[in-house]
Amino acid sequence: MNEQLLRYLVIPMAQIGAIIGVMLLCVMYLVLWERKLIAFMQVRMGPMRVGYHGLLQPLVPKAADRWVHLIAPIILMIPALACFAVIPFAGTTFDIAGQTIQPWVADLNIGLLYFLAISSLGVYGLVLAGWSSNSKYSMLGSLRSAAQMISYEVPLGLSIVAILMLSGTASLVGIVEAQRAAGSWFLFNPIYPQVIGLFLYFIAAVAETNRAPFDLPEAETELVAGFHTEYSGMKFAFMFLAEYLNMILAALIVSVLFLGGWLPVTFGIPGLHGLFGNFLPFLGAAGAAITGFFWLALKVFAVLTVYLWLRATFPRYRYDQLMSLGWKWLIPLGLVHVMVTALLMLLRG
Amino acid sequence: MTEVSLPLFLLFSAVGLFGAVMVVTRTQPVHSALYLVLTLFAVAAIYVLLHAEFLAVVQILVYAGGIMVLFLFVIFLVRPPVPGERRWHGGRHVLLSAALAVILAAALAFNLVERGSRAAADAGALLAGGNMEQVSMTLFRYYILPFETVSILLLVSMIGAIALARKGEGA
Questions:
Q1: Which of A78, A150, A171, B89 is the most buried (most CB within 10 A)?
Q2: ipTM of this complex > 0.90?
Q3: What pTM did the predictor assign?
Q4: What are the chain A neighbours of B54 within 8 Å (beta carbons)?
Q5: Cβ proximity of A276 and A265 under 8 Å
């Protein structure tokens, strides 16, 4: 009984606590990096967000639906945190005090689908936040985000189908293992390099996380602050946190699916694999796990930097442009991509 | 079921039933939609207890994550309900709804009596991989024609909706 308690309750709880702690720390530094990077790119200094410094009302607006207004930020936050459960942060299990620790909370057979399902729930937070605020701006932001997130979930899913076909599993650990077995990341897969897949996934993920240039639900110049106009204090902080957690999550998924997850960056030189696979050989398996986490973190950092780069350099899309990009370009491209992958797997696999 | 899953099953069933009752008794359509999401979640949790993880995830992905968001979208578009306002009384269709419920219950009861509860022939093979493989094999090998027919049906209804929406646009 005691052993079971340790294995099924204490260790997962410690893992979850560690992930939440590290991720909240990451959000702090991601915000800092965003301000620094964009200020550098635009050769300026300045606040990064309209509506942050006391412009928001400190109280819940009078006519709002109090209950829904309260739970909306929580609905945003919970899926963002729950998705981290299936992310493999490193590849090797290691022992601490006789207990085998895995560098992931759960390796589900359907990990990728779990991620898609849970992350698709975040839209409720946005929609309900806007509606319950009883303000025109918030409502418009909500409607935009509902349509946008539903539309861009389709290319997101299509870009992942090719990865599922190449790896033959929906487990995120299995997907990285498949890339190791294939000898190259899926981005450079010999059968069919997933460049289009990465492009599709990245565009769709930017839209799903409501980041610039697709940040229509909270467009400052049009909607004051969009769906979170009427939010302040802890509830606003939750929304802010959820947005950045979703960004980190999207970068993690890009790294795991296309960039080889915890596999080291070897530039295709075979001898480097053993050297870069474990920086701390005296720690054994734990050293390999730390090294894997280092490589994953490096890839995530690179992807996040591209994210911020987009925000600094692209103007915001118009609503109809957003819709026509999603439905007329990305979805057909995604369908063709899936078929080409299937065809090439049949011919070359 | 093991001894852990029976209390969990009862808990999730209770949550699901509570949500279902709330869906039909709320006067605010947005609240109804939210309680429906709760019910969908409870059903997904029961799927997980039955080791049908794939079904559970698809249920959340498609129904909770997609269709219910569209429901909310349509509720907002038809006439944005003001928070706190009490309107929308669905009383007119009580008789029709009751009749449908009775028919559904009768069909379920008939099925249960007629066929009884049969255990799967090879539970181990069914459950492997969150039964994703089994579902897709069954769907694409044995039921490919009905599956494709359903997709044609959806296509037809979509074209019909577009045609109706564009009527009177001087086409």
A1: A171
A2: no
A3: 0.77
A4: 110, 113
A5: yes
